[in-house]
Amino acid sequence: MRDATRTGPGTDPTEFFSGSARILVADGEPAIRRLLTFHLQRQGFRVDEVDTGEAAIAAIERRPCDLVLLDTALSGTSGMELLHRIRLAGAGVPVIVLIARGSIDNGVEATKRGAFDFLAKPIEMERLAIAVSHGIEMGRLSRTVSDLRERLSSRRAFEQVVGTDGALRETVMLIEKVTPTDLTVLLQGESGTGKELFARTIHDEGPRRDKPFVAINGAALPETLLESELFGHERGAFTGADRTRRGKFELADGGTLFLDEIGEILPALQVKLLRAIQERVITRVGGADAIPVDVRIIAATSRDLAELVHGGRLREDLYYRLSVFPVSIPPLRERRADIAPLVRHVLQEIRPERAPAVDPAVMERLEDYAWPGNVRELQNVLRRAVVLAGEDAIRIEHLPAALAGETGGRISTAAERFGSETHGKIDPRALETLDDMERHHIERAIAACGGNLSQAARVLGIGRTTLYRKLEQYGQLASA
Question: Which residue ranges form the domains of the chain, and what is each CATH number?
Answer without folding.
Answer: 22-143 (3.40.50.2300), 160-330 (3.40.50.300), 333-404 (1.10.8.60), 433-480 (1.10.10.60)
